[in-house]
Write a structure and sequence with these properties.
This protein is about 50% helix and about 15% strand. It is α/β, with parallel strands linked by helices and about 325 residues long. The protein folds into two domains: about 220 residues, Rossmann fold, CATH 3.40.50; about 80 residues, Uridine Diphospho-n-acetylenolpyruvylglucosamine Reductase, domain 3, CATH 3.30.465. The strands form two sheets. It has a six-stranded mixed β-sheet, with helices on both faces. Strands 7-10-9-8 form a four-stranded antiparallel β-sheet. Helix 3 links the parallel strand 1 and strand 2.
């Protein structure tokens, strides 16, 4: 065992409680660990490795190179491979194959997620671990508030996020802030890679992280990231309750029935109908997310007095008459 890992194990840092319980109940799991080489993902890797025996974990490291920083990006990959080798772990690496790489955070995230899910499928894993930490919560909340997010949008990133058709996402270090993580790594002389693009404040998340949120903490004289973490937890409890209620009252949506009773949807309060109906729609029209504006239009139509409505969603149409709602293929 490496000296760094032994020191890290001796510190006995805790996994986020919900994630620890989840892994404990699995009774052994192969986990794909997303590792960029930055401090957060390196801390995550050491943390899970330190619980390897206790939780019977089978860890596979995955690194995706977006090719945004030329040689420096390649060096990140070499670093992650070397770290994985030192820890006795398998490491899977891939790079962007785009001729002209799109420097867009959303596009990059989608590429990375697709790669991680591909590796999970190849390695027969049902769990992917991410290095999101406490500071990421407020950054995400602010960005999503700017887009007019719903309750579900404001509870991201969640400690555990389950999907119908994809591996479960877990975030074992969501309770720790960046300053704590870096101090912990320095304490055991662990190395990590600094991404120079993280200092580019033309990127919204970086501007929030380096300027706006620190100023807000100073102005309010409190740790706003910790407060946001508590808000996320309380909102998740509310969302879970609404989900249970929606499943009970609008079961057909969650059973993915091909045709829904419009009168039944109209009989419920809009918050329940919204989450039930769009669970149904997003499940049946895979890959075509419905914009917030279109969501509002469809919901208003459900409760409206027009007998016949038709909305284009991707290559399909949502059609409703006075009594029923269904999906038609528009291809």
């Amino acid at each position: 065992m490496s000296t760094v890992l032994q020191q890290f194990k001796d510190m006995r840092y805790e996994i986020e409680p919900m994630v620890y319980k989840f892994l404990k109940e699995l009774g052994g799991a192969r986990i794909i660990v997303a590792c960029s080489g930055g401090s957060d993902s390196v801390f995550l890797l050491y943390l899970l490795k330190s619980y390897e025996e206790e939780l019977q974990l089978d860890i596979v490291v995955a690194h995706y190179n977006h090719k945004w920083r030329a040689e420096s990006s390649d060096q990140d990959g070499h670093f992650v491979q070397k770290l994985s080798q030192d820890l006795g772990l398998v490491c899977c690496v891939d790079s962007s194959h785009e001729d002209s790489v799109k420097k867009n955070e959303t596009y990059a995230r989608n590429q990375r997620i697709a790669f991680l899910r591909k590796i999970a499928q190849e390695k027969e894993s049902h769990v992917i671990a991410f290095g999101h930490q406490c500071d990421d919560i407020l950054e995400t909340q602010i960005q999503r508030l700017g887009r007019g997010a719903s309750l579900d949008g404001l509870i991201a990133p969640r400690p555990i996020h389950k999907f119908e058709q994809y591996p479960t996402h877990i975030r074992p270090i969501l309770r720790y802030q960046s300053y704590f993580i870096q101090a912990a790594l320095k304490k055991v002389s662990a190395q990590w890679r600094e991404d120079s693009s993280n200092k580019d404040e033309t990127i919204v998340r970086n501007k929030l992280r380096h300027s706006i949120i620190p100023e807000l903490s100073q102005l309010m004289k409190r740790n706003v990231s910790e407060s946001a973490s508590r808000s996320r937890y309380l909102l998740e409890q509310d969302a879970n309750f609404l989900n249970e209620l929606a499943r009970e009252r609008l079961k057909a949506c969650f059973d993915l029935e091909p045709k829904l009773d419009r009168l039944q949807l109209r009989s419920q309060e809009k918050p329940l109908t919204r989450r039930a109906f769009f669970y149904w729609l997003n499940s049946l029209i895979e890959g075509d997310s419905v914009s917030s504006k279109l969501q509002d239009q469809i919901l208003e139509a459900i409760y409206g007095e027009r007998f016949r409505e038709k909305f284009s969603v991707g290559l399909s149409f949502v059609v409703m008459n006075k009594r029923y709602i269904w999906i038609e293929d528009g291809s």
